[in-house]
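Protocol step 4 of 6: structure prediction from sequence.
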Amino acid sequence: MEFKKYLFWYVALILLLFLIATQLFSPQNQLLQLIIIAILSMLIIMKSAGYMIFAISDYARKSGLSDYLLGFVIVALCTSLPEISTAIFASLAKKGSLILGDVIGANIIDTTIVLGLVAILGKKLKVGGKKITSVIAIPLALLIVGFDGTLSRIDGAFLIAIFIVYLVILIMQETSKSKLVQDIKFKKIWKDIAIFGFSLAALLLAARWMVFSALQISQMFNIPPFVLGLFVIALGTTIPELTVELKSILAGAKNLAFGDIFGSFITNICLVLGIAALINPIVFDRFTFFSSFGFMILAIFASVFFMNRKHITWKEGVYLLIIYVLFIISQVWINLF
């Protein structure tokens, strides 16, 4: 990646966001101002996540990690950073339902649109033998702890514990098959560290203002934060996953793409919601939650079913896209009628 090529544009976006956030524009145009802040925040989040993925993936490859482990753990964590940062600021604002909607919406997008486009682009990909059936158990854990309409701090700690256990087991399984480089010289990775640190700072700044603008807009139009997170925020925070998947397929690294999709799914439910609930308990409307949760279950079952076969083709990709269209139709019908 030619970092210097994009540096000026990147810094310019951050400065423009800062100017807008400090309300240098006329207060009479508050709605327009909030929309610009939200759009610029999402652009910076996407760009920051892209740089972070580049930095950490470059380091991980130098250390000798397998593509699947790299995708499932390293890249998945990086592509979930927009959700994590959004979760922190939404919880601090006591708007946990926003991040709950973001997580469910992002997971549905990951397992329908993202995986669907990967399958369509790849036309026919060999996927047999992937250890992903256990992914089905993760949303069931969320259903159990959230059945009463609340995610408490204890529930959050429980979800984080599940994530840690799952992560340790996966790392132990995959590292036994890989040759890891024990000693990497600092001069080979200092650029990765610098890019990662700068991008993390920009991402946190942008996430703070995206949450602020989204909440203000939802109040203006009386849109429930859960619904706003389910569609608008979720779409913005899943752009990094979509970018990684498409680039991985074009580069022939399908294991990296598949690992990231299901790694992000688990990270979103366990780590993102766990962190949000630890900061502030999340209270939500059970009917709205269950109606969208049902489609998340349908999406993960369909994607796991296709992935457990020898190949996933463009036809399965189309089926996954249809699931998302049905999800949109159902939510519009529920929330408008």
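Step 5 (inspection) to follow. The mean pLDDT is 76.
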